[in-house]
Amino acid sequence: MKQRTKARSVALQVLYECDLTQHTPGQALEQRLAEEHLEPELAEFSRQIVFGVYPIVDKLDRYIAQHAPEWPLDQISVIDRNILRIALWEFAVAGCTPVKVAINEAIELAKTFGSDSTPRFVNGVLGSLANRLDEIRQQFQREKAQEEGLSPRTT
Fold first, then answer.
1. Whole-number Å distance between alpha carbons of 123 and 84
2. What are the UniProt keywords, alphabetically (predicted)?
3. Model confidence over 54-102: pLDDT tens digits?
4. Is 154 a domain residue?
5. Exposure of 122 by Cβ count < 10 A (0-12 exposed, 13-18 middle, 19+ buried)?
6. Which of 46, 82, 92, 130 is 20 to 30 A from residue 66's alpha carbon, by CA?
7. What range defines the domain where residue 106 resides?
């Protein structure tokens, strides 16, 4: 497994654990990092994902639900939801990963952690989200500006 894929895998496991238990992301991440022994920069990447995704899960889920209408969000497996959340966060919110790379990485995680149908499902949903990337980024920026008490700029 490539090193950044391993870092994403750690973040995925942490988010999965937080979805299923009352564990805090900080507790879960520290335990997972202690077990995995990632290089410091990879541990930081895992940390960025966890603390980037976790606070905005509801927002990410809203976009995922719009692009997987035949699958109500509560019927998407916890692992699949978290794979989608991570990829969407990486390319639409943080902008730290090119879209194609984020999708390919999500498919790799899906092959490792999901069911046989997960890679195709993840690819389809993320492809639909990528097609509306500009719109999604603008919406996230507007929401962030509103939360910070700033009025969004009109251009």
1. 9
2. RNA-binding, Transcription, Transcription antitermination, Transcription regulation
3. 999 999 999 899 877 777 888 899 999 999 999 999 999 999 899 999 9
4. no
5. buried
6. 46
7. 3-147
